[in-house]
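As a warm-up, study this chain.
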Amino acid sequence: MSGASVRLAGATGRRSFLGRLGAGVVALVGGPFVAVALDPSRAEAFHICGHTYTTGSCPHPFAPRTRIDRAGYPVHPKYGYPVDDKGRIYTSRDQRRRKICEQVVRARFPKTGHAVLQGGWSRCCHGQIRRIVDCCSHSATRINGDGSLTGYCFGGRKVFCITYRDTNVPC
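Now compare it with the structure written out below.
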């Protein structure tokens, strides 16, 4: 093995190496436009890890990274500390901190009616279990502006937007 290939193998995991290799083949065959469209870091900018469908993220100070705690309040997407409605570290009750689904969605999108966190699913993301949760309402449209889907909602509600919670449980 050459020095360059040893450094490449040491700096990347098998999955990322194969992904880059595949993107290179696609770029060679289909052109750079197709390779850019398949870039996983580009997809992550529009969706959260573990979510591969089309429903957009709920409003959040760090949208589209709509990470919440167990109670549905916003937390910093990378570090997990509580944040207020403006994305500042939450340190005082004088700061405004609302639940993302039940309060922020209802305030910004009054036609959704009573929005609630309902069903969800789990995925392995960045070495830990991530819980992706639907914010459900009786709205016929979702945050994207297109028709809403039933998803994991119940009681006649449909998915309006999604959010997630990192569990800190290894996978």
